[in-house]
């Protein structure tokens, strides 16, 4: 169409132009008719879209593997039987002399020679009283009321001037005067039930006493209890036993016991016959009587 229009224009221009100049005053030329517009070209048909591809089927999952059977645990071993214990040896009869130890066995290992005969026991000396072990710690006389406030009594109570003995070697208060050069004494041969007693004035926790009877060779070493009992009381009437011994006391006898609330402390001679076995003329004598308070 475009080419046709161009051609038409060229022809028209060729017809309107002349090599001769236009004549003045001549009639106007006739305009040629417009050329026909060419028909539009045809659009090609759209292409066909190919069909979608087919997705392959999913693969099969393999079967699970089989778990192996657990192994068998072996049986426990058998413990060997215990060995037999040899029979105990026979104790030899008591002899009159010290026994001889039997010779060691010479046979197979483990055979012990027979035990020797034990000699007869000799005469046993009276065992010392064993009350010195501290039961309640912390006891001391400094924890008690002042000693000058204590009151002492003895039974029997020796009379003033007995046998011309000075009072400071005879009366009860001289066993709590803080001096071991003075003393209390019963003034007669000791018998079961003689006692010495102190009153502290107020009740305190009491865990022991120390009874000093003899100090040196000039004292009678027999003026000790042939056995004793210690009692405490809050009222001076009902006494509770807190310690005791059935053999002769030591010259300085320390007696400990569980701390007990008390105001009165009594030391009583016990267990000895009349006259006592330690001396037929022994008196109950105490140079100093100490109380341990907590």
Structural notes for this entry:
With 294 residues, the chain is mainly beta. Helix content is 5%, strand content 23%. It contains 1 helix and 8 strands; from the N terminus they run αββββββββ. The protein has one helix spanning 2-16, and strands at residues 151-155, 184-189, 195-212, 228-233, 240-245, 252-269, 283-286, 288-293. The strands form 2 sheets. Strands 1, 3, 4, 5, 6 and 8 form a 6-stranded antiparallel sheet that branches. A two-stranded antiparallel ribbon has the order 2-7. A hairpin with a 6-residue loop joins strand 4 and strand 5. The radius of gyration is 68 Å and the shape is elongated. Mean pLDDT is 73; it is low at 4-27, 94-100 and 119-126.
List keywords for this structure.
mainly beta, 294 residues, two-stranded antiparallel sheet, 6-stranded antiparallel β-sheet, elongated, 5% helix
Question: Could you give the topology of this structure?
Answer:
Layout: H1 2-16, E1 151-155, E2 184-189, E3 195-212, E4 228-233, E5 240-245, E6 252-269, E7 283-286, E8 288-293
Antiparallel strand pairs: 1-3, 2-7, 3-6, 3-8, 4-5, 4-6
Please sum up the structure shown.
A hairpin with a 6-residue loop joins strand 4 and strand 5. The protein has one helix at 2-16; strands spanning 151-155, 184-189, 195-212, 228-233, 240-245, 252-269, 283-286, 288-293. It is mainly β.
